[in-house]
Amino acid sequence: MTTRTAPGPRERLLEAAKELTYRQGMGVGVDALLKAANVARRSLYEHFGGKDGLVTEVLRLTAAEDEAAYEQTMRAAGDDPRRRLLAVFDWLGEIIEEPDFRGCRYLAAELALTDPEHPGHAVTRRYRERVHDLLEAELRRLGHPRPAYAADQLLLLIDGTLAVGATRPGTHPAAAARQLAEQILGEPRRS
Amino acid sequence: MTTRTAPGPRERLLEAAKELTYRQGMGVGVDALLKAANVARRSLYEHFGGKDGLVTEVLRLTAAEDEAAYEQTMRAAGDDPRRRLLAVFDWLGEIIEEPDFRGCRYLAAELALTDPEHPGHAVTRRYRERVHDLLEAELRRLGHPRPAYAADQLLLLIDGTLAVGATRPGTHPAAAARQLAEQILGEPRRS
DNA sequence: TGGTCGATAGACCGAACGGTCTATCTACAA
DNA sequence: TTGTAGATAGACCGTTCGGTCTATCGACCA
User: Fold this and answer.
1) Taken in order A51, A54, A59, A65, is the CA torsion positive or negative?
2) Which of these, A93, B28, B29, B165, could form a disulfide with B96 (CB 3.0-4.6 Å)?
3) Residues of A in Cβ contact (< 8 Å) with B126
4) pLDDT at position B122, please?
5) Taking Cα atoms as reference points, which of B25, B89, B121, B188 lies closest to residue A169?
6) Are residues A14 and A73 in the same domain?
7) CA of B189, C1' of D4: distance in angstroms
8) Nearest 5°: phi and psi at A3?
9) Containing domain of residue A114, as a range?
10) A29 contacts chain B (CB < 8 A)
11) pLDDT tens, B50-100?
């Protein structure tokens, strides 16, 4: 039986950091993280080597989760690549409406991590390319003439949606983006 | 004759803060700002009341500058609203290519200023609405059936362009956005 | 039973943070 | 010439920062 073991300090730290680095930004103090996770100071340095290691691991973790969320969203939309791609924007619309939505975590991280050598940058860059490739694969299945370029455009719409969702709540950027996405995908193929 | 007086401490501080808050983020230390501006510590608190007052004033200043840059870009593009709107994306393309481009200052500020009561938020919000209204006015002149909604979409493309420009250099988001913008504007009117 | 290892609490470190203060200097006006 | 206002340098304040360290605790295993 897969009994759920009580999460250890490492898991508690990751969970607390995931939450706090998003809500409070990358500037959260170590003390705040430790208190939120109920973890001894030493454990942080044992497991992650320092704050940078922790936030990098958080980025890695959430990137995997979000990547899976893209895949799950498309899987739930069925087989038609057109429907699958448009479903992404419906999903974004839901995310934006969540009360504690604060914009794209990865964009915020890249803007906040001043040091270009911070290992977090590599994680966010890889994440973006993975999403790009997911989109491109669908576009290819759709028979789009320029799948890579169209994926660039869809990614631009996604980033725009998340940015506007954070800065102009009340407008409905996901719906506006979805309409533009339809034009990228071209006329629906009438079988 | 309009002899250019040597800039006083206030101007030097604003200029240094404009530069450093963009390059290093809102987390720059007061000491770094003072050193860069060659200004006494006391002067900062005399003129701006504190760091928050300074960065808010910087946002106000750059918002006015950027607003003027939008207007100038459109003015230089002539009278046709379609050309004027598309010129914005050409201009964004130039901005993104600048070697020290680091993304949208206002989005970065909004993500970095955790405290929702920080006066900077009001400045960035106002700025966005001003740009929106500039776009909407052109769309109205163009005879667009839904100028406010189309302005939402253009603003989304702008934010997406700046985000992608910061996170995926090498791709050419401004050109990709421009093409989508053309579709928002509709078929060019053949006089 | 004793040993080991992971975790705990928390003192402690030097550095940097934002902000206040005194004292001095300089330019300009009365 | 003297007074005044604005700017200067920089000491100083308490707090917080990320990070290190010691000491203790408790669970599991030999």
Assistant:
1) negative
2) B165
3) none
4) 97
5) B121
6) no
7) 67
8) -65, 135
9) 56-185
10) no
11) 999 999 999 999 999 999 999 999 999 999 999 999 999 999 999 999 999
The residue assigned the tokens 């928050």 is B52
Closest residue (CA to C1') to nucleotide D17 in the complex = A29
B165 in a domain, yes or no?
A: yes
- Strand D CB-contacts below 7 Å: A 27-32, 41-42, 45, 50-52; B 8-10, 38-43, 46-47
CA nearest A181: which of A149, A153, A140?
A153
First and final C-alpha spacing in chain B = 48
Q: Output the pLDDT for position B171.
A: 96
CA-to-C1' distance for A104 and C12, Å?
38
The answer as to whether B5 is a domain residue is no
Question: Of chain A residues 99-118, which have a CB less than 8 A from chain B?
Answer: 102-104, 106-108, 110-112, 114
Taking CA–CA distances from A106, the nearest residue in chain B reads B167
Look at residue A8 in the predicted model and tell me its pLDDT.
82
3-state secondary structure B56-112: HHHHHHHHHHHHHHHHHHHHHCCCCHHHHHHHHHHHHHHHHHCCCCCCCHHHHHHHH
Per-residue pLDDT band for B2 (boundaries 50, 70, 90) equals: very low
- Alpha-carbon distance B150 to nearest alpha carbon in chain A (angstroms): 9
